[in-house]
Amino acid sequence: MIDDTSAAGPSTGPAAARVILSAADIDRALTRIAHEILEANKGSSDLVLLGIPRRGYPLAQRIAAKIAATDSGFDAAASLGQLDVTMFRDDLRKNPARAPRPTRIPVQGIDGRTVVLVDDVLYSGRTVRAALDALVDVGRPRVVRLAVLVDRGHRELPIRADHVGKNLPTSSQEKVRVRLAETDPEPRPAENADCVVIETTVPGAGA
Amino acid sequence: MRHLLSTKDLSYDAALTVLDTADQMAAVGERSVKKLPALRGRTVVNLFFEDSTRTRISFETAAKRLSADVINFSAKGSSVSKGESLKDTAQTLAAMSADAVVIRHSASGSPQQLAESGWIDAPVVNAGDGTHEHPTQALLDAMTLRQHRARTEGRESTRGLDLEGMHVVIVGDVLHSRVARSDLWLFTTLGARVTFVAPPTLLPVGIADWPCRVVFSLDEALDPAPDAVMMLRVQRERMHAAFFPTAQEYAREWGLTPERVAALDDAGATTAIMHPGPMNRGLEISSAAADSPRSTVLDQVRNGVSVRMSVLYLLLSGDDLDPTSTPHPQER
Fold this sequence. Notes:
The complex is a heterodimer. Chain A is an alpha/beta fold. Chain A contains three helices and eight strands, in the order E-H-E-H-E-E-H-E-E-E-E. In chain A, strands 3-2-4-5-6 form a five-stranded parallel beta sheet, sandwiched between helices. In chain A, strands 1-8-7 form a three-stranded antiparallel beta sheet. The longest helix of chain A has 18 residues, at 23-40. The two termini of chain A are 22 Å apart. Chain B is an alpha/beta fold. Chain B folds into two domains: 12-133 and 300-316, Aspartate/ornithine carbamoyltransferase (Rossmann fold); 135-297, Aspartate/ornithine carbamoyltransferase (Rossmann fold, 3-Layer(aba) Sandwich), CATH 3.40.50. Chain B is built from eleven helices and nine strands. In chain B, the strands form two sheets. Chain B has a five-stranded parallel beta sheet with strand order 7-6-5-8-9. In chain B, helix 1 crosses helix 5, helix 1 packs across helix 11 and helix 5 packs across helix 11 (297-316).
């Protein structure tokens, strides 16, 4: 959700789309991220995964399931939440109003725990900044880390991800779109039920 | 949505957006930090030409929870009592660069006048105008009905839920009630059925053209039991004629008496009891009804803050938008 262009939405003009990650690639990347999180945290104690709507949350769910499969002491339901950052964005006046999505924090709270923020695309870094502000109002974690499926560069703030599924050097004219079975149900071939796509707007056509 | 003037011209989608946003605003009220930074540095003016405590406090709380600065302006003790016109007041506020104006006025249509006259270039929220409309009250009533529906149907979330198939009985002073009018338009848009119950003297001319059923007997309207019954306040301050013989007779015929509440209990109904406040206990609503577990009066107050936060947020975000640029996709 870093990336305004990672959205499903009316595209402007004809676009050439390339699939960068297929469903299997995404699954492998998430498996690796799950293991990296466990390794960095030296186990699953005091770990909280917070997905940033919309697509960060299903990714966090999947990572939680993978951690639970590796580490039987990890209770996926009690350590998984969703953090909406809409009201904390710095571009509220520049974009039309969006209805915020629910924030769900595990009942034990986040105080003194390790919070891993999960999002689909890391772009300018502004969503993550908003997420850090939103976290302050919820509690005081011991450590905050960031896991993203795709890092496409072009940062506008001093923010970096701790766990990255794929580093994807892009031009700012390109659009990186993440499609997940949970959030984007429109029909696709089975091997691309989840996928990451780069769209390049054909110059001279459309906007 | 540029202004919120009435619920008559509020679309189904816009109403659901306001309600879904209000649900998230409600969650903020349950946290230890009850504040969001969304309207930091913006100024909301509460322009109240008519007495009001709860609506003004509700709007003030809503604006403050969104970090906006609030200026309260009431006609009493202001230059309005020296004869200043609405136009001059509006232009003064514009010169002070108010970002949004919440207006309550005893003259129907004054919020629209303010919105369309060009005296001030800010979103206008109608907080009740004469006997015309009170849209935020209708929205908070719809939010309460939606929660009631989710509770009785065992739903986990109210997101995207409308009032399809619900039956709401609105009882009392329909003639003077802007709440009844706003409720009717909004509930109908959201798919609910509305029945008005009132003495014939308290029904407006032209009600036959409204999309509602009108009955004169409360007992008839409560059988079969509706999903909710809303008691309107008897507005003594607007009654300049004898609309009913005595208060006792009104309470007996059109009040929610302990006997009527007992009848609902006996029928095993899930009917919610609503009241926009302030209540005249013993007149339109008995204490037995107001304090029963069916009563949603305090939920309505709580939802009022959430709905007003939602409206202020939706009206004030995106105002730097260049209208000529391509619209931003709703979902990223």
